[in-house]
């Protein structure tokens, strides 16, 4: 499929397997290609805010007359989505309030449905390509294997009456493929909107020094250069959050994608010392104290994630504050583990409408983010957006405009100058 896109070429190597490289120069911000998803699903939490079919955000979306749960821009979008939505529509009516499949389960159901109903040649080629996606069934650990088994059980429970399911082995393979190759669709502030499978994007390898970035325009994925590229350069994205030090990044890559990165940054570990910055004291902090605090920080992050759905916002905020106080005895505020907890605390403050608290945390985060993330990072632009909008909400217009302009400078490269996010942001700044 990539052979049909000008300026790109697919390659195969013994060390990296499949990949993509460019056959002509690309400048920073230039679009390499855009890709429509093979299949996708809107997050249940975003229903009513976005069109199920095109992911457009607008007021007065039309509700599905049958299930009353799905929303659309108009009849055209509803009609286009019906081959996929009818699976959930009948299931939601049957299960009512007990309908609760995971997002992964919903996406796999749609992939299976699409394989069955799609008849045109181009989509048949895409179906074949789904079979080429990476699968690591034999590599998964017990925890992931149990999660896959639970997903398969959910698929049978919620969809078996409305969908013909393949055998258990094939389902394990498909869930493994989707877990390794699925993409999270996010908005301008990096809030989760949905999940999709893009066979074209699955050809792109990982690096902690990416040459391109993936952003979304509705359900379409767009790949733009974040470095000047010359013929022969490989197209590389980051599969993970690049804020964290080398060991953390590679632990995540091994757990989720079953490989270790050997890029220049992972080999040199050049940013690790800055990312793990400790407080200056009259007597240097012992290495053992630092390593113990790193272990504490990782444990605190795991525990916070485990309690996000069971504790109240005020309890979660208290967890953040306690861990920040403990880590702050050893770590500087710019240490990535401190930044992680500050980011969580900021989100909770926004949820609790504590705008001053959210701004306080955001201001501490912004400068280290700008230093630690790569150029044109969406993590940095989204933080400028969040802070800018918070400032505007408190009538601190000059600070708000300044932050929003800095967000725009990054987004013009990452999203393209004509993206609707930029258009809407310009209108937002003019109105306020």
From TrEMBL:
Superkingdom of the source species: Eukaryota
EC number assigned by the record: 2.1.1.354
Cellular component terms per the entry's GO annotation: nucleus
Keyword match Zinc: yes
GO molecular function per UniProt: histone H3K4 trimethyltransferase activity; zinc ion binding
Record's catalysed reaction(s): L-lysyl(4)-[histone H3] + 3 S-adenosyl-L-methionine = N(6),N(6),N(6)-trimethyl-L-lysyl(4)-[histone H3] + 3 S-adenosyl-L-homocysteine + 3 H(+)
GO terms of biological process kind: methylation
Name of the protein described by the UniProt record: [histone H3]-lysine(4) N-trimethyltransferase
Organism field: Monopterus albus
